[in-house]
Design goal:
This protein is α+β, with helices and mostly antiparallel strands. It has helices spanning 11-16, 19-24, 28-42, 77-84, 206-212, and strands at residues 7-8, 54-55, 93-100, 106-111, 117-124, 129-135, 140-144, 152-155, 158-160, 175-181, 221-228, 234-239, 245-252, 257-263, 268-272, 278-279, 281-283, 286-288, 304-309.
Length: 310
């Protein structure tokens, strides 16, 4: 036997060949045919007619598709981002009106709690809209109905291949219009700001530090379990992209834990529910009046960390 061509002209050729030669010396297409004869021989059943010599063909060549029809799902930041996204439990709802601003029909897809794609609306035509009630931590993606290419979402001057209310600064219990646009992902993974572990600068008060904090775009999420270690009820507050205070949960009682899916560059503050005095966060030997995963050394996306409110 030479190279990748093996010819069997008689049953004896098959019978005398070792299994290793049969399995490793021929291509996959011819292999299936040969294995059928091996099974017959081992059952001592002679084929009625062996037929012409079996020549193992070369592997088939896949046809080349036009570049604009290729859906390259590997090694792209947008596809990786879409693959990582999945829904987290959240009770804060809003309504998103998705408008197809592309020139092609698109499929709107929800990423469920297992990260699987579930079709919400098929063939949303150019210019048409789809209204969807959802939660702040439920991500959506959109694909061209024909090519399956990822499209992008545009809302509040932010663009991403994944739309999630919390990351786009959607108001709680509100209604927003989100545009689906031709996929452009130059800024899919913005660089995280350099961590700063100073609790309060010498010339800053706690309130000044809290007031200066605001959210930045990030696509690595994790879950923070905020535990109230004080003796008073606590209001947990998210600082949105404009630096405004958005109440996440009011009156967290002493000893109670609140779980929140968030992102590495989304800051939180905590206030006494009665006096509105700032409280501090403690995690990973770091203490600050502002909790932000990036500054507290949260290591990986998908982590679950317990943060004490003191």
């Amino acid at each position: 036997m030479t190279e990748r061509l093996t010819i069997f002209s008689t049953i004896d050729d098959l019978r005398n060949a070792s299994d290793e030669v049969l399995i490793n010396g021929i291509d996959a297409v011819g292999r299936e045919v040969v294995l059928e004869y091996i099974l017959e021989l081992r059952r001592n059943v002679q084929p009625t007619q062996f037929g012409p010599p079996i020549i193992c063909p070369a592997p088939p060549t896949l046809p080349e598709l036009p570049l604009d029809q290729l859906c390259i799902r590997e090694n792209t930041a947008s596809e990786n981002q879409a693959a990582r996204s999945k829904s987290s439990r959240n009770q804060i709802k809003f309504t998103a009106c998705f408008k197809n601003s592309t020139k092609s029909a698109v499929d709107l897809i929800w990423k469920n709690y297992g990260g699987e794609e579930e079709l919400v609306r098929k063939n949303l035509q150019p210019g048409d809209t789809h209204k969807q009630s959802t939660c702040l931590t439920h991500p959506f993606i959109a694909r061209d109905s024909d090519t399956r290419k990822l499209q992008s979402f545009l809302y509040n001057t932010k663009t991403s291949a994944v739309f999630e209310g919390l990351n786009f600064g959607v108001p709680h219990n509100g209604s927003v219009t989100v545009s689906i646009c031709e996929g452009k992902f130059e800024d899919i993974e913005p660089e995280l700001p350099e961590p700063s572990f100073n609790v309060v600068e010498k010339d800053q008060t706690a309130e000044e530090l809290a007031s200066k904090s605001k959210s930045h775009n990030a696509y690595k999420s994790f879950t923070a379990r905020f535990k109230n270690n004080t003796k008073s009820n606590i209001d947990l507050i998210w600082k949105n992209y404009d630096g405004e205070q958005v109440i996440v949960r009011q009156d967290i009682e002493p000893g109670v834990t609140h779980a929140e899916c968030t992102y590495f560059t989304h800051p939180f503050i905590a206030r006494d529910s009665a006096t509105q005095q700032l409280r501090s966060f403690s995690f990973n030997s770091i203490t600050s009046v502002v909790f932000e995963g990036n500054n507290f050394g949260v290591k990986r996306g998908g982590d679950v960390v317990t943060v004490g409110i003191c």
